[in-house]
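User: My collaborator and I are trying to settle a disagreement about how two of our proteins should look. Neither of us wants to argue from intuition anymore, so we agreed to look at predicted structures for both before our next call. Could you fold the first one, then the second, and keep them clearly separated?

Assistant: That sounds like a sensible way to settle it. I'll keep them separate. The first protein:
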Amino acid sequence: LVDRVPSAQLLSTSEYQDDFAALLAGPGGELWAAWVAYRRQANSVIVRRFDGNTWQTAQTVSEKPGDHFLVKLGRDRQGRVWAVWSAQVSGNWDLYGRSFDGRSWSATTRLTEDPQPDIYHNLASDSGGNLWLVWQGFRKGRSDIFARRYDGAAWSAAERVSTSAANDWDPAIAADASGRVYVAWDSYD
């Protein structure tokens, strides 16, 4: 039995220690890969695009090295690719994102602002093209699952998805063909 499989290809470089890889597929064989790269006591968020034929040069999406964690990729209804990551700024973890319109990256958008940590996020696009962001957020010392929707022009207000009195962790998200969005998570309930 013979199976034809693609050969492995190194996307990162030896100058960094790399973690938390994410992959997003697009039209025409397009792929986007993203990861968190560490060197000199700081992290950067790196992305690399495969245009259907070749991998393009890696780009640093985080505006400066810092304390970054867990990058995820998604696509909005205008076809813009979003990279969203957690970053610790002034002692608090929040979610930040940038979108790529085919020519350049947008300014960094702060997506959460609570004074307690917002981490372990995921992205999914629904059948209407809305981009959904879910994450684990701590409020009053307890973690719950939250969601926001990007309609192509603006982000909705954050909504708490989980209702347990116990801690809820590490959400996953999926959307079906009829526009419904499903969120699953681990709970200590």
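The second protein, kept apart from the first:
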Amino acid sequence: FSSPADLIVTNPQVGFRADTFYCPAAPLPFVDTSSGAGLIYLWEFGDGTTSTLQHPQHSYPLGDADYSVKLKITDISGCQDSVLKTDYIKIRSPKAAFDIIDTTTICPPLRTGFTFQGSDYQSFFWDFGDGGSTTAMNPNHFYSDYGHFIPKLYLTGPGGCIDSAEASVTIYDPMATVQLNYGPVTTACNSLNVDFSITIPPNFKFTLFFGDGTADSSQATTLSHFYSRPSFSLPRIVIYDTISGCEVAING
């Protein structure tokens, strides 16, 4: 007498999970949560590639895109189950961007404002270019010294991809950047015509005082002035900073 073979009824249940927002070209772990005996796996990642591992990692190509992922399992009895998650994985590169106000002055300290406009990121930080940094969303920063600075915003996406954006902040030293040249003759009898040449930082207004009671605020950087009577005149430039409201005088 022989006993009948055991009757085995199986019912595998498929499941998986993964980070749904991730960087391109970074290994993205997929975690199998299926149940069943002796399972065989077939993953389809939505970009034409597959895997038979239980817990695979997959790197998606560069470019922003959504991917549908399918997992099919087969158990020891040949029973199968599968699941398709449509547009499950969203591959995004971080995009750094910001607005900036008050970027130039001749009178430190300069208070510069930053407005965050980044997207598709996990974390970020600001590097102000003068040794200062912050993780505040919309910071203000004081630049205290003369010089040229490159503030940058760094964005990091899930998986480690990085993007950055930068701007320019300049605090001009008026004593080093403003030039008042005139001549070629500066001494004469009775009257004298003098040619003036001015070098000034960009976007600043100024007035040229000729030293004889007259002045020019036309913003012309090359001009002539006629001294019509005997005098001892000291030309000077006054440069105006509309952001801080200060004035700086440079004598000739």
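Some points you might bring to the call about the second protein. The chain has one helix and 25 strands. The two ends are 124 Å apart (CA to CA).
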